[in-house]
Each structure stands twice: as structure tokens, then as C-alpha cells.
Design brief:
By secondary structure, the protein is an all-alpha fold. It is built from six helices and no strands.
């Protein structure tokens, strides 16, 4: 299987896991497990980048503004790179802050008995509450990630349709 096909499969798994984690925010243990799943996928991607394949390098997350001119600005690679870097940083930040708040409790065998899905306010309760700043950062970064993902999708559909179709398994050629 070609590297690009592996990348789009990984991309799909990561995107679905991030979306599931985001939309399960009020589901306690499920949300935590999905968050750890996102962390595992990020770690896998970082290790995968070390394989040496140019398509897998982390340079695609670093924007290069070389040869950026007003003419053709909307299709310049820097736009995609800025969006990818923003998505990567916000997802990593949201995942890291979530792990900081959980402190590994969701991975303990007694996790089912120490977690409740929600309290009277619809918010998850734990024996010792995470700091409010970490929780706010977690929510802010998760919301930022979703906003950047929406911009990313809209940008690709508007200016890079063949790539969008390929990544969404909708390319006509079937290669």
C-alpha cells in the first residue's frame, strides 16, 4: 500500500477519534479513553515521521512563506501549513491538558467505580478536581481545534478539491 494511502487512513482514524472525543465531552470515562486514544495516535504519528518517507516528515506542519505573492495566495502551500500547524498544536494541547486533568485515572482498573458520567451541572466530577485553568485551557484548545478543522476542510474543498476528494476517499480514479 502506498504511503499516501496509509496517510489518508491514519488521517481518517485520527479525525474520527478527535471528533468522537470532542463530542463525548460530557461522557466521563468514554471521553477520557478517547483522549488517550488521540494521544496514542499522536505518538504513533511522531514515531512514523522518523521512518524517513518525505510525505511523513513533520516539515509539512511548519509553514514556509517563501515565494508567497498576492497572486495565487489562496493556493500557496503556506495556507495549508498554517492550518495544519494550528490543528496539530491545538489537538496536542487539548490532549495534553486532558491527560493532566485525568492524571491516569481512566487507565486504572478501578476507573469504572471512581468515575461518574456527570453531576448536577452536567460536568464530570472526580475525587480531586483539576485546576480551573487547565480545564479552561482544555476546553479552549478543543474548541480551537474544531474551528481550525472546519477552516481546513472549507479551504481544501474551496481551493484544493482533488486533494480533498483523495483524503475523503472520493477520488474518481479509484487508485
Amino acid at each position: 500500500m502506498a504511503v499516501m494511502h496509509r496517510i489518508r487512513i491514519f488521517h481518517s482514524v485520527l479525525a474520527l477519534t478527535v471528533l468522537a472525543a470532542y463530542f463525548s465531552a460530557e461522557m466521563g470515562l468514554v471521553h477520557a479513553w478517547l483522549g488517550y486514544g488521540v494521544a496514542a495516535l499522536i505518538l504513533f504519528r511522531l514515531i512514523w515521521a522518523l521512518s524517513g518517507a518525505p510525505q511523513l516528515g513533520l516539515a509539512r506542519f511548519h509553514p514556509s512563506f517563501k515565494d508567497l505573492h498576492l497572486k495565487g495566495i489562496m493556493t500557496h502551500p503556506a495556507i495549508s501549513q498554517v492550518l495544519l500547524a494550528g490543528i496539530a498544536l491545538s489537538v496536542i494541547g487539548a490532549t495534553g491538558s486532558g491527560i493532566m486533568m485525568d492524571k491516569g485515572r481512566a487507565l486504572q482498573p478501578s476507573a469504572l467505580s471512581s468515575f461518574s458520567l456527570s453531576d448536577e451541572n452536567g460536568r464530570e466530577r472526580r475525587e480531586d478536581e483539576a485546576s480551573e485553568i487547565t480545564e479552561e485551557a482544555h476546553e479552549y484548545l478543543a474548541n480551537l481545534a474544531i474551528a481550525l478543522v472546519m477552516l481546513h476542510v472549507l479551504y481544501l474543498l474551496s481551493f484544493k478539491l482533488p486533494l480533498a476528494r483523495f483524503m475523503l476517499f472520493a477520488n474518481k480514479s479509484g487508485k
